[in-house]
Every structure is written in structure tokens, then in C-alpha cells.
Amino acid sequence: MKAAEGFPSGLCAQHRAIEALLRQLDGVRTRNGTSDEEDLRLLAALRRLLLPHLAAEEEHLYPLARRCLPVGRALADAAGCTHASIRRLLDRADDCRLSVTGRRRATAVLLLVLRAHLRGEEEQLFPALRARARPDELRRCERRLREPRAGPPGATGSAGPAGPTGPTARGRPPGAGAITALRDRLTGHDSTGQHSP
Q1: Three-class SS of residue 189?
Q2: Fewer Cβ neighbours under 10 Å: the N or C end of the chain?
Q3: Is there a contact between 110 and 90 (Cβ–Cβ < 8 Å)?
Q4: Mean pLDDT across the stretch 78-83?
Q5: Dihedral (C-alpha) 93, 97, 99, 100: value to the nearest 10 degrees?
Q6: Which residue from 112, 11, 16, 1 is spatially nearest to 65, judged by alpha carbons?
């Protein structure tokens, strides 16, 4: 039962590493005279950590949520959309064609969306799975999450198994709609990922 109680310890450890990088990015954005290269270095490190993490969640964690939780399908669909948004924001934040100001604005939105997503998983999804999924299902999922992936994560624009669209209103974490609206306003994209005129 202990393995079930600790679920998902691997993902939680990855969340701590992601949060440490986000704090470093916060520091870069608040210090005057910090080089642009530092921004790009931290964003590259975030990409290396984050993309395999998102892909593993899509492959193992969210299918478990779909099977075990009453609103699991809606949660998984919402997470797929959020993951796609995070990938797009990451691409925009380290786009060297943008001005430093434009990239830092995109980074600020990325940090906001990513922190809300991590908090929603830790405060809502993980406890719900620990309460409702069988211990053997949690242990099997934990093992699969820890297995090294056979190849590189999917394309940065991929939304994963949930796809970019779907019924996402029910079961979304609190504030998800406001975060989406704020992200779209700051990045100039509408909710489908298309650039607004």
C-alpha cells in the first residue's frame, strides 16, 4: 500500500525540478542587466525537462484518470489542451526572432500557465487518483512513469492523446478559463492556437 500512498512520487520529484527552474526564470526576469543568453539557457533546460514529463503524463497518468475518475475524461481532455498550450508558449518564449521584451512577456505567461497546471495536478488530480484507483493500478502506473522513454518526446506542437479540442469545460481546474483568456490576450492567440488578426 505504501507504493500507492506515494503515488506519483516520480512526477512529484519532476514537479520540484520544474519549479526550481521557474524560480530561476523569475530571478532572471526581475534582475536588471541580466543577459538574454541566461533566459535562453534556462528555457532550454526547461524544455529538456518538461517535454518528456508532459509526454509521460499523456501516455500513462491521464489514461489512468480516464479509467478511474468520474470526471476523468474531461480532466484528461483539459490537460491535453493545457499541455498543447504549454508547448506553444515554450516555443514562443524561446523564439529568437522576438524582441527580448516579447519573449519575456511570453515567458511570464508560460510560468503562469505551467504553475497553475502543476498546482492543479498536485492539489486535485493526484489525491483523487490515490483515493479512487486500486493500489495495483497506481503501482503499475508509477512503474511505467519511471521507465525511460524509447525515443524523443512528440513534436512540440502536439497536444497528445487528448488532442487540441474536445469537451473541456467540465472537470477543469478552477481558474482554467481565466488563465486561458489571459494567455491568449498576452500572446495574441485565440483558444485554437491561431494568431489573432
Answers
A1: strand
A2: C
A3: yes
A4: 95
A5: 50
A6: 11
Q: How far is CA 88 from CA 1, 154, 175, 189, in A?
A: 39, 13, 20, 10
Beta bridge partners, 195, equal 189
Specify the length of the chain in residues.
Answer: 197
Nearest to 84 by CA among 137, 162, 27, 31: 162
Burial letters 54-64, b for 16+ CB under 10 A, else e: bbbbbbbbbbb
In angstroms, the CA 5 to CA 46 distance is 28
Indicate if the alpha-carbon torsion angle 192, 157, 88, 66 is positive or negative: positive
Radius of gyration of the chain measured on its C-alpha atoms: 17
Q: In the structure grid, which three cell numbers stand for residue 125, read together?
A: 488530480
* pLDDT per position as a tens digit, 107-130: 999 999 999 999 999 999 999 999
Name the packing angle between helices 100-120 and 36-56 (round to 10°): 30
Q: Which three cell numbers stand for residue 96?
A: 529568437
With cut-offs at 50, 70 and 90, classify the pLDDT of residue 6: confident
116: Cβ contacts below 8 Å, ≥ 6 apart: 173, 175, 176, 179
Q: Do the Cβ atoms of 58 and 80 come closer than 8 Å? A: yes
Higher-confidence residue: 96 or 74? 74
